[in-house]
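To whoever is covering the structure queue this week,

Two jobs came back overnight. Logging them here so there's a record in the thread.

Job A:
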Amino acid sequence: MGKKTDRLRRAKKTRARIKKLGTDRLCVHKTSKHVYAQVISSNCSTVIACASSLDKEIRDKVKYTGNIEAAIVVGEILAKRAKKAGVKKVAFDRSGFKFHGRIQALANAARENGIEF
């Protein structure tokens, strides 16, 4: 199996556990150049809030969109948008990525700005 297959297998297992909880989930995806995050409702059909390093608001604040600084800004803005939509508690879906670097920075920024998981 390759790296991507392993990651998708881990993501599938995590999403199955989150589905049993029945809570909204904060789903994160990263590429080499960007970070994407969205809060998805518990019925898995509606995106409640989203933020990515492609947003103009974020691109103006950071020099490069594929690093930890950009992930922190994405986490802060996502938390603000989610709180505005009425979401306070979510399950963290890291999409099979290891919890370090940009994923960890985004999660910590969201926690500091009022999202619980």
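Job B:
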Amino acid sequence: MGTAREIMHVGAESVRQDETLAAAAAKMRDLHIGALPIRGADERLQGIITDRDIVVRCVAEGHDPQTTTAHDVAHGTPIWVNAGADIGDVLRTMEQYKIRRLPVIDNDRLVGMISEADVATHLGKHEVGEFASAVYSAPPNN
């Protein structure tokens, strides 16, 4: 079936944990993407921030995106997959955690991202159907 490396977008852009949400939003706009991995001072994955996080966890709660940082809204343990993981494992991870974007790690470093579009374009109808049913039936992650 293949590996995560075979379906991921290579060289995922990211945001530092100390960057503001306004800067993250501008980067998302410029790159035409809806999520960015957050990296720490050690360059390792610290989480992921979505455009929805910026709206729901910052703006809607009355915080200033010019001063609120990616670290301030990051929550939980980052979910990721190893670059050599079987695509079946990738799908199980995304379905289990009800996530639409999955960072790919190799040698403790972010090397890519797998999005719902990657799943749709690289897998068969059956796998895509199971993925869509599991992920889209879940309430939004807040």
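Note for Job B: The chain has seven helices and seven strands.

Please reply-all if you pick these up so we don't duplicate work.
Q.
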